[in-house]
Amino acid sequence: MTVPETLVDERHEPLLDKCGSHLDENRNWPTHGTYEYTSYYHSRREIVSFTEFIAMDKEFDFVVIGAGPIGAALAFKLARDNPNSRVLVVEKNWAEPDRIVGELMQPGGCQAIEQLGLRNVFSDICAVPVHGYYISYRGRQLHVPYMHDTNGQLRGVSFHHGRLVMNLRAACKAQSNVVCVEGSVTELLGQMDNSRFTAVRGVRVGPQRIRADGSDECVDVCSRKLTFVCDGITSQFRKQLNERPVELISHFCGLVLEHEPVSSDAYFDGPTGATSHVSRPTDTAGNPLPMPHNGNVMLDGVGPVLLYQMSERETRVLADIPGPFLPSESNGQLRETLRVSLSRAAPKHLYPGLHAALMRALNDSRRIRCIGSKFIPATANNIDGAVWIGDALNVRHPLTGGGMTVGLWDVVILTDLLRSHDAANSQHVQRVKAQWQWRRRPRALVVNVLSVALHALFAAETKELGLLREACFEYLAKGGRYTMQPSGFLSGLVPSPMLLIFHFFSVAFLAVYLRVSDSSVAYSGGSLVYRVYSAFYTLYIAATVILPVIWRELQP
């Protein structure tokens, strides 16, 4: 593959040469090939400054607030579906973003990307194919592969978040009917009733950095059809739609491991990459990961510890610290908590290479980057002329890596519906939004509920939750549908809420059996009467974990 001259890193080294993206044995995966919009990756010719925008025509058919992965994909699809319409995208900073989450795309998200016409978006950014999940618990390991279709095993992709966003933005910039503005949307414009919007008819745009005293010059932009709010997890406009307080569940603390690349066929049985049920992490000299080209989940830390490759030579480590409060870094509590968590998750006698790499990364890091993990259920949108989408609408725990899958499928469903309706007709748009909410709900509910429920089990702050975590591991280890259907939930491929409830309570009843039979390692001891009582109390705890989350997801 030829590496375009425009796609280079900060030291002007070709990304593919640096990351070794050719090492995987299967050339048909979506990480291979040439991306048709590569020449726009670093280009700023298409980006309009706020000063330049002041002199432009300010009437647009569609306005998109935010050019993250969802906003950029949405703007691209709107432009392609409506070639005679003008699309405005307003983004504060068009430079490559740097985040510690949003770096793994599940197979369900890859399917959405393909439906959006962006199949090659993972090319030329050193992305790594992902086969499934390696899970470690109490010295035992299992592999949960992704499901298969008629063409073979479905695969996810992991990558640098900023590089994927830049590829999506490149596709957006390449469309002649898209205007990309570097500036800030300071407020929505429209009709209000009791301080709440009833209709949105445009936005007010200001410069990239807004002065606190409000003295900046701003311009009003008219949106003839729809305004899309895609300004992400920290959305300043979410309160117009959803005033409920945000629930902070835990914090993810991020590190980066640097290592030598490894070919998949060194870790997988079979000529096509089909995996055995248990990994063979024997050679830790070059690459310390238990199972490269997979999401690695270590369950014995303070909270779950995730490891996935961002390239062939870099791996992201996300260590979860449960609860709404984060230990202080200034007095060393945060580093000590992470040291204990990482040492428990990857003990030296089981993972010598990984343990050494984790301690080295922790010691060498100048600052620990952390991000709060939140849960925000979607809210029905009755505001005329506006649509909230992506993390501006709906946020789940990042443990399962399903956020972009939900957001991209939201784009697929919404744009498909808009193609057959008049977006300038408010009654048609309300009908579209109602159908969209109904069609998006099954997949969003499964991904969102699973993320919150699995975190509660994997963080295991009580004996009952520890028993449920053990039962979950035993359940997945059974193989067959006990492994593959839960894999379908994780990957966003099986949007069936009823099947999710069935499997979750199957895990709960397995926990009951483990407790009553006194065969549990996580929760053992006691008389038969006490074991029966505690077993059914565990069943009650399981219900309190999943049912309130489902209820909140089902609320209008």
Structural class: alpha/beta
Quaternary structure state of the chains depicted:
single chain
Whole-number radius of gyration? 24 Å
The main pleated sheet reads as: 8 strands, mixed
| Uncertain residue segments | 1-18, 20-29, 269-284
Strand content: 15-25%
Number of strands: 20
Into which percent range does the helicity of residues fall? Answer: 25-40%
Overall form? globular
Give the number of helices.
13
What is the mean pLDDT? 88
Head-to-tail CA distance between termini: 49 Å
Give an account of the 3D structure.
It is a single chain. With 556 residues, this protein is an alpha/beta fold. The chain is built from 13 helices and 20 strands. The strands form four sheets. Strands 1, 2, 3, 11, 12, 13, 14 and 20 form an eight-stranded mixed β-sheet that branches. Strand 12 and strand 13 (196-206) form a beta hairpin. Helix 8 packs antiparallel against helix 9 (426-459), helix 9 packs across helix 10 (463-476) and helix 10 crosses helix 12.
Supply database-style keywords.
alpha/beta, seven-stranded mixed sheet, disordered N terminus
Task: Provide the fold topology.
Blueprint: H1 15-19, E1 47-49, H2 50-54, E2 59-65, H3 69-81, E3 87-91, E4 104-105, H4 107-115, E5 128-130, E6 132-137, E7 140-145, E8 148-149, E9 152-153, E10 156-158, H5 161-173, E11 178-182, E12 184-193, E13 196-206, E14 219-229, E15 247-258, E16 295-298, E17 305-309, E18 314-322, H6 333-345, H7 352-364, E19 369-375, E20 386-388, H8 403-419, H9 426-459, H10 463-476, H11 481-490, H12 497-516, H13 528-554
Parallel strand pairs: 1-11, 2-3, 2-14, 3-11, 6-16, 14-20
Antiparallel strand pairs: 4-10, 5-10, 6-7, 8-9, 12-13, 13-14, 15-18, 15-19, 16-17, 17-18
